Amino acid sequence: MDKNVEEALIGAWIDMAMNIRGNRIVTGLSFNEIVVCSILYRSMQTGVGMLTATDLGKRTKLLKSQLNKVLTAMEDKGLIERTRSEQDKRKVYLKLREEMLPVYLGEHEKVMTIVHSVCMTLGEEKVRNLTELLVEAVEAVDSLSLQPDHKQTVSNEL
């Protein structure tokens, strides 16, 4: 692959990430809190129900210490509640508190306004293509973490 293409990809990726995080589209919650809320909300909507911190850690790719800090802040704000499993006292389940859903949904609506604007600018076909490409890119990155020596391979390429 042409190195210029790879450099352009990483440049665009960094620009998008910085725009998402840096423009503070959401103001009431941190970026990580929004991500956790989104995962918990989707689990409610799909009937999955409550998730464990381990489930969230796998989805968010946050370090355990980072995730615990985020979850504690969310609990302090009253966004989530923790429930210890009756069957296995070591397991603690997390869920969004129903009465706090308007907080998350208000922030989500701000994000969706930006997404809508991007969709209108790009058009439906490009958005569908972009979505497919992003899914493929995530799968490609995820497959690297499954390879035991991927860090060595990546560092050799740098």
SSE map:
Blueprint: H1 3-22, H2 31-45, E1 51-52, H3 53-60, H4 64-76, E2 80-84, E3 92-96, H5 101-122, H6 124-146, H7 150-157
Describe the overall structure.
The structure is a single chain. This protein starts with a helix and ends with a helix. The protein is built from seven helices and three strands, in the order H-H-E-H-H-E-E-H-H-H. Helix 5 packs across helix 6 (124-146). It has a three-stranded antiparallel beta sheet with strand order 1-3-2. With 158 residues, the protein is mainly alpha-helical. Mean pLDDT is 86; it is low at 150-158. It has helices at residues 3-22, 31-45, 53-60, 64-76, 101-122, 124-146, 150-157, and strands spanning 51-52, 80-84, 92-96. The longest helix is centred in the last third of the chain and has 23 residues, at 124-146.
Q: Give the CATH topology.
A: Arc Repressor Mutant, subunit A
> Which shape, going by the Cα principal axes?
globular
- How does CATH name the architecture? Orthogonal Bundle
Rg of Cα set? 18 Å
Task: Spell out the key features of this protein.
158 residues; mainly alpha; Arc Repressor Mutant, subunit A; three-stranded antiparallel β-sheet; 7 helices; 3 strands; disordered C terminus
Provide a quick synopsis of the model.
This protein is mainly alpha-helical and 158 residues long. The protein has helices at 3-22, 31-45, 53-60, 64-76, 101-122, 124-146, 150-157; strands at 51-52, 80-84, 92-96.
